[in-house]
# Entry
Amino acid sequence: MTCAALEVFYSSGLRVSELVGLDWADIDFQLGILRVVGKGSKERIVPVGEIALQALRDYAVAQQKKWRSRLQRRDRGVSEQPGRAHYDAGAWRASSRSI
# Structure
């Protein structure tokens, strides 16, 4: 996420609080814009560069692979930590809205 976050931060000129509050639903990949909530809870539309958008796409693909792999290991009963059984079924839930 570090690369994608830095690309978005640099490309769009967001404030840190706006970047942290960004959700997937706030990104329009086709138009190349972000909908952010800034100071005073004011919403604004911000353009974002293609390199930053590609970094976000790459991050999303990597996260899908990561979570898919973790879920498959969990379903097989394989722990993330060697020598420990994994029994918490909700431990690997990924939020669909958080970046």
In short: The CA atoms of residues 33 and 47 lie 4 Å apart. Residues 50-75 form the longest helix (26 residues). The beta strands are 27-28, 33-37, 43-47. Residues 86-95 have pLDDT under 50 and may be disordered.
